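Table 4 source record.
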Amino acid sequence: MDLMDRIMELSRYGYFCSQILGLLLMETLGEDNPKLVQALAGLNGGVGYSGGVCGCMTAGCCLISYFTGKSAPTEYESPYHKAALGDFTRWFTEEMELEHSSVECRDITGGNPAKRLEYCPEIIASSYEKCVEILEDRGLM
């Protein structure tokens, strides 16, 4: 099954952007982390369905941080952490500004379910691919 087909399948199961990104990562890693997927639901619909920053941007940062963030009191974040996040957020902002004039969910979709179906699967796919690229380029994935 290709990436777009999998995104559409997960969407039919009732998952939204942020959760789909988390599920794709878990599938890629061969891991199962239902609590991560559950927590990512808080980013759906532009942070808590507020229409704010697109859930793909915030969840993409979470995916990168899954590999680079500080995980224990005696550990440090990866030296790649801030640069990887910066690379992703710059890319995301440039892409969304170019295509949709905004990084805000409310502006991208206008709250219109038809626009969500039209725009969101591609945004999810390109966000996932960019996260993987950033992580692979740094030897983290």
